[in-house]
Amino acid sequence: MKKRKNNKKKPTKTDNGISYTVCGEFFPEVYPAFRSQKWSRGMEDPLDTEMRLFCSCTRWAFNRLQEDNSRQELKKQGQGTFGINSRYCDDAILKARAVIESQKELLELEIEETEAKLVRAKKKLSWAEKDLDRAVKANNPAKIEDFKHTVHGRKARVKKLADKLDELKVHRDNGPIPKVIFGGRSLWKRVCRGRVSREEWRQARQDRLYARGDETKGGNPNLKISWHNGEFTLSVTISHLSEQKGTDKKGRPIMTRAPRVTGKLWLPEKHRQKVLELLLSGVPYTVELIKGRDSRYRVHITFAVTAPVLVTNPNQGYLGADTNPDGAALANVGYTGQPAPWPEGFTVPYPKALHKFAGEFQITMHPNGFLYIKVPELSYSRGFRRTYLIGVLAKVVVDTAKTLGKPIALESLDFGKDRFDTNRKFNRMAANFPFKKMVEAVIRKAFKQGVGVKQVWPAHTSTIGYYKYMERYGITIHHAAALVVARRAIGFKEYITKELKQKVQAVKEKLSQKVNSLPGEGRGMTRKVKQLFKRLDGKISVHNGLTRYKQESFHSVWHDLKHLALSSR
């Protein structure tokens, strides 16, 4: 018997694929002429009914997947239980599975961070208990009372973290995952406090519709985007309105063609041409339709596209970037590791969309290859405004690198939660410092524009820049750090030079205690500083012979030079 040939086009997979997401707005105009007496509630329109059924199926699948039910079983049951088609049901199951997998990943991360917090809290408790013992020995009633309050508070903190850690480990070892609240935990807490109505919370639980793309079905069969007469349109399949008209040879139901809700799709002008090109190429796209509290329908369209060819060459050098709370410092570094002057006629591409106030976007450019992009509002603006400003900043950085033809060198920074609750000032700085968003925005933008990005180990970049390059090139500490980042990306080691040894010796002579003088603020040498110089004497002599990894390690000579710089201020 001859095997039947399968003429279906198989979806192609891109190895170097990236996601290209566009946000727009949907304006439904044409609705089906009838409603479903079985599935609709009250006066809700068919689109809202379809979204409610899809979200209900997602929550139902979330609970069933934790009971080890298979995807195929849930797919069959879900179609009969919620009345949606097989593709919608399968997408709801995959959304539920993604929630479970993300919660498992977050559980491991939360356990690790809680363990680090607990260690730190126990250490702080021991410090407080020692202070209390000293106060008792000194018989100081005022300090005894203060330290008793401190010990009580830190014991409560240790107990709270220990209980939380035990609970997280039980979830990890025995399951299930911690409780998930669909609709948002913060919104549910506001409902419990009587600040938000239950109806608003229910609306947040049934406000979306999701459909994956399929290359064999023309892009996306359930949420289909079209182009007619110079305008984009979106048609949404209302699957719960289709009816069974018979069964096939295998006993599967044959359904009537489902009606659709159609309307105009608004997309930003800068993305319209790109979306049209992707639609004409037949690339599959994923669409998520979200209904906001203002009853407007937002659309998130994601295309899987091939990564563009790199337009930068690392052999020419790197554009080093040092991120800060109010902007970024850039250094144009050649392949020799030295700062290169800006090309003749070069100008930084100024963003066109900023017209809020004078000085909103400041560029300070130095002819020897350094510049600073300052956005004062970045350090104190609210979430959405900050995200927008970070996107503008990332675009300018990437456009600058593209013009130079050089890849970008960035620090691989990480402020984990384990460092929080150690120092109030640092907590506030780390919570408000949008470094992670900056780095991610630059990487995303660079990847789409074909600009190379290399992240390097961030340890001691500012210290090296302070000692070696700040005075030499007459630049700020941030420019010097950007230079060190670029040199590290190229692969250069940072040696201890004769000039640096002379600087250390000058600081040592300045801090040396004179005859008949007592150590005081800004003069004399304390025991800690003496120990610091003793460690430096041993590390400086062997530093240049170490491997690059050991030279950049946390406890290298630069760690002690950092403390020396702080003590000599």
From TrEMBL:
Keywords: Coiled coil, DNA-binding. It comes from the Bacteria. Residues 97-131 form a coiled coil. InterPro entries: Cas12f1-like_TNB. GO terms for molecular function: DNA binding. This is Transposase, IS605 OrfB family. It comes from Desulfotomaculum nigrificans (strain DSM 14880 / VKM B-2319 / CO-1-SRB).
